[in-house]
Amino acid sequence: xxxxxxxxxxxxxxxxxxxxxxxxxxxxxxxxxxxxxxxxxxxxxxxxxxxxxxxxxxxxxxxxxxxxxxxxxxxxxxxxxxxxxxxxxxxxxxxxxxxxxxxxxxxxxxxxxxxx
Amino acid sequence: xxxxxxxxxxxxxxxxxxxxxxxxxxxxxxxxxxxxxxxxxxxxxxxxxxxxxxxxxxxxxxxxxxxxxxxxxxxxxxxxxxxxxxxxxxxxxxxxxxxxxxxxxxxxxxxxxx
Lengths: 116, 114
Fold this sequence. Notes:
heterodimer; A: mainly beta; 7-stranded mixed β-sheet; 4-stranded antiparallel β-sheet; globular; B: mainly beta; 53% strand
């Protein structure tokens, strides 16, 4: 089974702190994604990466950065956490897209981040 | 940009009954994939069912089936014989054949009434 794990299920941080959220997948997937999930807004893409050291901005990259030094690991960084970044963060991975294959995304359990 | 619309924020169904969740999408692509994901309360998002755009036959997975209408850009999910464990948030998603990015709807929260 594909497994995507996230470093924390729940996290509480203070405004201005630097926050690291880590995601690890064990299926040798090329693509990794970070989403933010808020009620009524669905999943919004923050960043995704299609290879080591490669990244693409998603729909809401402001206030976030990412790092992918190894294929299996994708980190989301909040440089200076703010209260409006309180949310559920979901990590996902998939095989490289294109071609006649579904390449569905596999999700981690999520990290519920609260910024006080 | 592709958009995915789920117009029903909340739905409810009586246990053992059938419910249909709606999804529409907008794309100029001819080849793409569609997915329904389920997110139970406080649990991991999992894939329920998937459909290739160039396959005319609707996908089926046990009690879950889809009604895919390519011309209408509609992709609804039918859950038959609803069970308490079906209670969850359901997300419709789209991926173009040539792309890696997924586009998700805003979700439908399904309540199953015993």
